[in-house]
């Protein structure tokens, strides 16, 4: 039984390690203003069977936010454009101003802030796992 508690505790430590690593990455980043831009139109499977042209599909999608938003930002006068690797729902509409966090040593590495990227989700997960582990241990030890 102790092995199970130890495994659960190790899972909590993994979450804690990932969360702290993500959190430390944010300490060296700088912020700048950016803007969401619309990337190329996505042609969905259902669009293949419609009678719409690519231009009509683009017009329909013009105001819809991308799940993985693309954004532009400037660092020391140089422009950059990047697509977020993290899904952001409900997403940002094109033209929305956002805060972009970038690495000052490598400005092409930039992120939009969300709960996963900052490590908060992993830290909350670690706390949850530790609490569940302690409660299970308490329940089993009183039986």
Describe the structure.
A five-stranded antiparallel beta sheet has the order 3-2-1-4-5, with no helix packed on it. The mean pLDDT is 80. Helix content is 40%, strand content 20%. The chain folds into two domains: 1-28 and 114-143; 30-102, no CATH class. The protein has 143 residues and is α+β, with helices and mostly antiparallel strands. Strand 2 and strand 3 (78-83) form a beta hairpin.
Q: Unreliable segments (pLDDT under 50, ≥5 consecutive)?
A: none
Number of strands: 5
**Approximately how much beta-strand content do the residues carry?**
15-25%
Q: Order of strands side by side in the largest beta sheet?
A: 3-2-1-4-5
Compute the number of structural domains.
Answer: 2
> What is the SS-derived class?
alpha+beta
Write down the secondary-structure element order. HEHEEEEH
C-alpha Rg, in Å? 22 Å
- Tally the helices: what do you get? 3
Average of per-residue pLDDT values: 80
Give the % helix. 25-40%
Biggest β-sheet description: 5 strands, antiparallel
